[in-house]
Each structure stands twice: as C-alpha cells, then as structure tokens.
Write a structure and sequence with these properties.
Elements lengths: L1 E5 L2 H4 L2 H13 L4 E4 L6 H15 L5 E5 L2 H7 L3 E4 L14 E6 L2 H9 L4 E4 L16 H11 L4 E4 L7 H6 L4 E4 L1 H4 L3
Parallel strand pairs: 1-2, 1-8, 2-3, 3-4, 4-5, 5-6, 6-7, 7-8
Helix pairs in contact: 2-3, 3-4
C-alpha cells in the first residue's frame, strides 16, 4: 500500500510541529508527502519545501508541492499536486511528478489523458481534517474509478487505519490523508 501524506500546519500548531511530522513520516517510509500549505506566502512556502527536502536527504520519500510547480521546480521537489481543473499538460517535465485531485470518474479519465502521474480520488469517506457536508464517493465508486483508468489512484477522505484495507481491496494503489499521517503514530 502506497502512502501519501498531505500536510496541514494549522492542524499541528505551526511550522516546527509540521517539520517534526514530516521527519516522522519520512523515517516511517511514507512514499509521498504533499506540502499543502496554500496560504503561506511564497518566501515561507519556499523555505518550508527546502526544509522538507533537506529532512528527506537520501530517503526515497517523494516531495510534491500543492499547486505551485514554480516553487517545486525551484526547490528541487519531485513534483506538483494540482486540482482537477488545472492545465495539467503545462507541467510535463521529464521525471517531474504530476498528481491530480479528482472527484469523479470523468476527472480521472481527463487526468490520465493529460498524462498525470497519479491521482487522488474522493472523498471516499467524510474527511476527518475539515467539516464536510457534501456527498462522499464511497467504496463502490472508488472501485469503479480504479477500473476506469490505468494510472494509480489513491483513496482520499476520511482514511483511517481501520478503513484503509477496504480502499486497497477496492483497487486503490494507496491512501492519501492529512489526519492519519499527522496524528501521533
């Protein structure tokens, strides 16, 4: 099961606890970490990404930056994570990962056609990191989604240690989460 950690410094209480969480996840072998600090000014986000890359050192964890391919490239990150309505083709750089958030099977098909490296799909369950009043996709739709495309699909939304295995059984290549990877493990 591939693990995709998504950061939220506000949930942890700031940058320093976030860096500690990143270090713990890297030490535990989490395969991907998405720096998702949307409201940080450019200078602070750049510094955070550089610190995360330095913590990673020679470990295999891949660091992606949410929406800011310019910062990802400038800092030497492994890729970018984009919303489903982004112009994905603009980020086709050899060796540079492009992950896409998808909420429908049509989103997944579009991401695959645009050569996305992989996609996160959901919310499969009600998210734990924020209030959510909209519909969830559920395991049945996750199963359909994973069969609709060849790119890896990670289950997102309300993922816990208890329901992660059912996501993998439904065909997900891995799980993506904020709370699961930021809570004390």
């Amino acid at each position: 099961m591939i693990r995709y950690s998504i950061t939220d410094r506000k949930q942890l209480g700031g940058i320093e606890p976030l860096l500690q969480s990143i270090a713990r996840n890297i030490a535990e072998g989490v395969e991907y970490i998405q720096i998702r600090e949307k409201d940080l000014p450019v200078r602070e986000l750049t510094a955070l990404v550089r610190k995360a890359i330095a913590i990673r050192a020679n470990q295999p964890t891949r660091i992606l930056v949410n929406t800011r391919a310019d910062i990802a490239i400038a800092c030497g990150a492994d890729g970018v994570h984009l919303p489903s309505d982004s112009p994905i083709l603009n980020y086709r750089i050899p060796g540079f990962l492009t992950a896409v958030s998808c909420h429908t099977i049509a989103d997944l098909i579009e991401a695959e056609q645009a050569h996305a490296s992989f996609a996160v799909f959901g919310p499969v369950f009600a998210p734990l990191s924020k209030s959510h009043t909209g519909p969830t996709t559920g395991l049945a739709q996750l199963r359909e989604a994973t069969k609709a495309v060849r790119i890896p699909v990670f289950a997102l939304g309300g993922i816990t240690h208890q329901n992660a295995p059912s996501c993998i059984e439904a065909g997900a290549a891995g799980i993506a989460a904020i709370t699961l990877f930021q809570s004390s493990q």
